[in-house]
Amino acid sequence: MHIEKNFLGNIFNTIMDVKGKSKDNVKVMMDIKEYCQRKNLELVTIIDGKIMKPKAPYSLTLEQKRLICQWFKGLKMPDGYGSNISRCIDMKYARLYGLKSHDYNIIMEVLLPIIVCMLSNYISNPLTELSIFFKDLCSSKISEDALRRYKDNITIILCKLEKIFPPGFFDSMEHLPVHLPYEARIGGPVQYRWMYPFER
Fold first, then answer.
1. Alpha carbon of 193 to those of 1, 13, 80, 165: distances in Å?
2. Which end of the chain is more exposed for a tag (fewer CB within 10 A), N or C?
3. Rounded to an integer, what distance in angstroms lies between the CA atom of residue 74 and that of residue 71?
4. 120-173 per-position pLDDT tens digit
5. Helix (H, G, I), strand (E, B) or coil at 38
6. CA-based diameter of the chain, in Å?
């Protein structure tokens, strides 16, 4: 439950380039220069000695951020499906705040593919696959074969994400989805064990 929340928080804050919460910062860019071969993401020194962070391909432009926030502002959901996300929009800074875990669940499983469709296909496709992974994993009926497939799929999805996002994006939270199919195989369908009914 909180894996989904934290993972989506990292993704959303990074693609929206939320100041202070994005995993795409100067320290990460220094790591890129040292450990990765991604010239387009390395820090650039401009004429007066200042360091400039280039715009990453996985970051949205200001217009796109405002468009997403506007979309969230007008989003209507069925009664009881989720909280009123439109109250959690900060239009000035183009960010979301104050969401509950269940809201993150809805965004990850349903709305993320819509949000990332503005990005290039090589970025949006793995994020959509991640969304489908969580949606399938949280379904009420899961077969053993499906869980084996999910286990194989999530490793491939994470490898694709490693090619997109900087190394600093990946902490222990991004690794944990690898264990979720096994946990579902041992404990049964996730929705009978999560805390959303009690949290809401």
1. 9, 28, 20, 31
2. C
3. 5
4. 999 999 999 999 999 999 888 888 899 999 999 999 999 999 888 888 888 888
5. coil
6. 61
How distant, in Å, are the alpha carbons of 18, 61, 188 from that of 115? Answer: 15, 13, 31
Residue carrying the six token digits 């944990």? 176
Q: Quick one: CA dihedral 162, 166, 168, 173, positive or negative?
A: negative
* Alpha-helical regions (H) of the chain: 2-15, 26-35, 62-73, 101-106, 112-115, 121-137, 144-164, 172-175, 180-187, 196-199
pLDDT tens digits along 94-113: 888 888 888 888 999 999 99
Give the span between the Cα atoms of 7 and 1, in whole angstroms.
10
Tell me which amino acid residue 112 is: L
Could you read off the pLDDT of 14-23 as tens digits, one per residue? 898 888 888 7
- Return the amino acid letter for 122: Y
The per-residue pLDDT for 1 is 61
Nearest Cα to 155, choosing from 125, 188, 130? 130
The pLDDT assigned to 110 comes to 92
pLDDT at residue 135, rounded to an integer: 92
Residue 108 identity (one-letter amino acid): M
Residue 154's alpha-carbon distances to 8, 37, 47, in angstroms, are: 15, 24, 44
